[in-house]
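Backbone geometry:
***
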Amino acid sequence: MPIEVIDNAMESRFEVLVDGRVAGFAEYRLAPAKIVFTHTEVLPEFEGQGLASTLVKQALEMSGDTGLRVVPLCPYVASYIKRHPEYQGLVDESVGG
């Protein structure tokens, strides 16, 4: 099953697609030089497949590639960063990670 992560800027969220269908999303708000992650959700029929991790990993990498600092207000994003310290460098210093 093909899995793809896209930035749906019109909806202000990263989406994980499975076979072209939205399986989950990570909502964000843009601020000057920052991306504020506010909520992450995987639809019930897609839970337990590791899609949230795939989604957040790609969202963090895409954000970092554009030079945005990350503000992880979403508990899942914050937890993911704690479990994967290689992304700690993306966190906005004023947040403290």
User: Anything to note?
Assistant: The helical segments are 51-65, 75-83. The mean pLDDT is 95. Strands lie at 3-8, 13-18, 21-31, 34-42, 69-72.
